[in-house]
Amino acid sequence: MTEHVKALPRLFDELASSQQVVHADTEDAIAVGFAIVNASETFISPDRNKRNITIDAAYVSTQAPHGAARTMAKLRELPRRTSSIEDGFDAFGVMIIKMTNDGGPIGLVDGLPAPDLSDDLHYERMLERLVYLYEAPRADAR
Predict the structure, then answer these.
(1) Cβ–Cβ < 8 Å for 129, 90
(2) Which side of the chain, N or C, has fewer Cβ within a 10 Å radius?
(3) Collapsing DSSP states into helix, strand and coil, what is residue 129?
(4) In whole angstroms, what is the distance from residue 106 CA to residue 31 CA?
(5) Strand partners, 33
(6) By the 8 A CB rule, do 122 and 116 touch?
């Protein structure tokens, strides 16, 4: 995401409905979500650049870090469940990057607004939760 604030309602709705689709089949399905948010100050939009970006690229502002922080706050509102009868993601993670989309390096943001290692939304916590749920005995296996 780059135009963070403008896209927040759509992002939230699409993610929230995706976990509902997964759980509609069976309550024991594991719904995992992962979001990557771009916190770069500028970004070359492929939609707005229909020309050779190495010669004449139009950069757009991403409103970083404010936009990335608002996006992170909205992603925290997504429901997460602790049992199979609840609504929400079973595991969800967020990664904040800096990428201008110009062929340059991509950096991982490890400070705010990115989740720290103890945060449930940290990538490693998401994977740990997924492994735990995958290895847990299922009701239908009994």
Answers:
(1) yes
(2) C
(3) helix
(4) 28
(5) 92
(6) yes
Mean pLDDT, all residues of the chain:
81
Return the structure tokens found at 30.
């594991």
Residue 25: Cβ within 10 Å count: 8
- Spell out the domain ranges in the chain: 4-141
Q: Cα-flanking dihedrals φ and ψ of residue 111, to 5°? A: -105, -175
Q: What are the backbone angles phi and psi of residue 34, rounded to the nearest 5°?
A: -145, 130
Task: Give the 3-state secondary structure of residue 3.
Answer: coil
With contact defined as beta carbons under 8 Å apart, do 32 and 18 qualify? no
Residue with tokens 């990057």: 97
Contact (CB, 8 A) for 1 and 66? no
DSSP assignment letter at 46: T
pLDDT digits (tens, 9 = 90+) for 4-28: 567 788 888 898 899 888 888 787 8
Structure tokens of 127? 């994977």
pLDDT, tens only, 55-74: 555 555 555 567 888 899 99
Residue 12 CA: distances (Å) to CA of 3, 16, 84, 113, 129: 14, 6, 21, 18, 21
